[in-house]
């Protein structure tokens, strides 16, 4: 939750809305968090802190086709999060340099080098999709 709370896109989102956005991915184990070690100010205490996160869904063929032409960010019902074999990045808050490394690790380790897709918000605010990984 800390990664979302520190991301400017989510700072005005009510806590319950943030809960609804993250719980399906957490429930299905379809999330990853990138951490860095930080030293707390004026102490010798060192602790890991979250700097980026990725939430993904594994959707059905029908949802995959629908997502490829989506013009608005889709809202997934709980069963949709784990309904098929198509990996879709649903959100990736935090430091995008850290998230990029996390996506690379997920591609190699979690996704078994299967291609995955992500929603991208263009500068004009419109939605597009992008495929990552091999065809």
UniProtKB/TrEMBL annotation:
It comes from the Bacteria. Signal peptide: none annotated. The keyword Cytoplasm applies. Its EC number is 2.3.1.-. The keyword Kinase does not apply. GO terms for molecular function: acyltransferase activity. This is RTX toxin-activating lysine-acyltransferase. It comes from Roseovarius gaetbuli.
